Amino acid sequence: MATRWGICSAGKISHDFTVALRTLAPENHKIVAVAARDLKHAEEFAKKHNIPRVYGSYDELAKDPDIDVVYIGTIHPYHLATGKLFMKSKKNVLIEKPLAMNLREVQELISAAQDNSVFLMEAIWTRFFPVTVELRRLLEQGEVGDVQMVRADLGAPLTHIPRLAERKLGGGALLDLGIYCLQFIFTVFNGERPESIQATGHCIDTGVDGTAVLVLKFSGNRLAICTCSITMMLTCDAVITGTKGTIKIPDHMWCPTSLEVNGKEMQFPLPEASMPLNFTNSTGLRYEAEEVRQCLLKGLKESPGMPWAHSSLIAEVLDEARRQLGVTYEQDNIQ
């Protein structure tokens, strides 16, 4: 039986997610409804993607009895409210990254999932790419020995995009881009908590972080460096240095299609899209969707590949980095 998806929000990332779902077998994944706060936008989205049911509010989607899981593609200040809405209606949810604005909100979402006995996953799609699957295998096999250093960079000039630059929209390099670097680091170090976090950088005139550099120190003098920016183009690669060599994600580290192990390159091409996409390599969103299906079939409430503990740890590190940089959101002031 197909996993029945509802799409919450008719924006750019929801378009790409819907296109990616269509690269999977239709007997396994079926989109049954879309909701937007503007009914016209939802109707246009449904027509473009041939989705049978359309709603002009998220409440209506939450009440639809024929949905197994809702993909939440809203901007992150709305993740907490929309996530709780659907989970209280006993809907499983896949929520775009970052899961929420801070650790307090992440914990609130996890509590809602537990209280309502539903599945919850942060949509860090990178975790489920074939490159990441191979990376985990190589690390488990000790291909590069004991890991000593991890470096991950991601940045581009993006301050012209309101949701990335405006504080009220959850803007800033850390929440949108730095999360990819941190999730990579915690993939390598298997969710281990760092002993120390040092952050530096600068803010743009809207008060959000334009560029941030984080140095994380782990037990045994292992280090990780995360650099993210919405003001400049960075290399967008990642390197793992071990006692026996290196593993490199040469580019597009957030949606990778290749991997270099001690200089030897492996390619992992993505399927073609059926229509134009808004973001790079977006057909790779198919892998997180299939992960959700497999978890639901097994009766799991969280994904082993992106567990709640990792979402909490990432949020905790982001909170501390923002504290050191002096970046606050209105959600931080709620007691």
Topology:
Elements: E1 3-8, H1 12-21, E2 29-35, H2 39-49, E3 53-55, H3 58-63, E4 69-72, H4 79-88, E5 92-96, H5 103-116, E6 120-123, H6 130-140, E7 147-155, H7 162-165, H8 173-188, E8 196-203, E9 209-218, E10 222-229, E11 238-242, E12 245-249, E13 258-261, E14 264-267, H9 285-297, H10 308-325
Parallel strand pairs: 1-2, 1-4, 2-3, 4-5, 5-6, 7-10
Antiparallel strand pairs: 7-11, 8-9, 9-10, 11-12, 12-13, 13-14
Helix pairs in contact: 4-5, 5-10, 8-10
Structure in words:
With 335 residues, the protein is α/β, with parallel strands linked by helices. The protein has 2 domains: 3-124, Rossmann fold (3-Layer(aba) Sandwich); 130-267 and 305-333, Dihydrodipicolinate Reductase, domain 2 (2-Layer Sandwich). It is built from 10 helices and 14 strands. The mean pLDDT is 97.
Give the distance, in angstroms, between the N- and C-terminal Cα atoms: 44 Å
The structural class is alpha/beta
Query: CATH class of the largest domain, anyone?
Result: Alpha Beta
What is the CATH superfamily label of the largest domain? Answer: Dihydrodipicolinate Reductase, domain 2
Catalytic activity: (1R,2R)-1,2-dihydrobenzene-1,2-diol + NADP(+) = catechol + NADPH + H(+); D-xylose + NADP(+) = D-xylono-1,5-lactone + NADPH + H(+)
Pfam family, one: GFO_IDH_MocA
EC number: 1.1.1.179, 1.3.1.20
InterPro entries: Gfo/Idh/MocA-like_OxRdtase_N (IPR000683), Gfo/Idh/MocA_domain (IPR050984), GFO_IDH_MocA-like_dom (IPR055170), NAD(P)-bd_dom_sf (IPR036291)
